[in-house]
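Lab channel / #folding
Pinned by the channel admin:
"Please post every new chain as: sequence first, then the structure tokens as a reply. Keep commentary short and put observations after the output so the thread stays searchable."

First post following the new format, from NK:
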Amino acid sequence: MKNTAPIKFFAGRSTKPLAEKIALSFGSELGKTTVLEFSDGELQPYYEESVRGCIVFIIQSTNPPAENILELLLMIDAAKRASAYKVVAVIPYFGYARQDRKDKPRSSIGAKLKANLLVSAGVDRVMTMDMHADQLQGFFDVPVDHLYASAVFVPYIKNLALDDIAIAAPDMGGAKRANAYARFLDCHMVICYKTRKKPNVVEEIRAIGEIEGKHIFIIDDMIDTAGTITLAAEMMKNEGAKSVRVIATHPVLSGPAYDRINSSFIDEVLVTDTIPVKDLSDKINVLSIANVFGEVIRKVYNFESISSHFIS
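Reply from TO:
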């Protein structure tokens, strides 16, 4: 079966460099859009070319500020009102994913609200990578393609050709992800346990598993303030680790993150370009996931199976 509808790629302003790479990987280029900004900050995106009858892929990560989410919603709405055949939201970093449940009384569930907004805006499909929790896919009433950055991280680890490596989960919630990497690489696994005084502030961190003499890779979906990973790296170096590297898909890197990383015991931080890295340093290395998205988009467009990309 072959798709006969034309395909077009467009980008929001937060992820334009990555969007250009994704379109190029597919063998296309970005369409032309303009965002009109009123003096009070109100946004009005519009397409400078026809999308009638097209399958429209809109690429935009929804990291802060919140205008990135609103811009994506407005672009979806504009495409539907311009008679696009299908609209696919490609959201490399799905912001607000940490708000996936009520962990305290009288709190919002931001991830569910965001899913509702996307569907209400008219999206037909969502494509994203390394959500904070896999079950967020169930918040949507449209198909969700949940991809994994392990497609670029695992080959990188193998190419280092290190002996005695171990994969570490920074907390109990990351154990499933770490176990997948340990299985692929046929190596030991370490699980960290942390207690928090308040959000983004870690009080204590301990580890279960063999650390001494190992090259440790701490695996996580994102780095925010870098408090957990820098404390974990210090603890592991004190317990005899040969080296400590951190692998995280989304470089949120807020607040003191850059200073903490640069002054830490971490040997290398490996991230992707789902969010632009503002301050590259000797310790931060960025791998592009454009080809992963480009390949999956090609398969979706051609009605081919993408199940192999769902393996974390």
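NK: Residues 9 and 28 are 8 Å apart (CA to CA).
TO: also worth noting, The helical segments are 16-26, 67-81, 110-121, 150-160, 175-185, 227-238, 257-262, 290-301.
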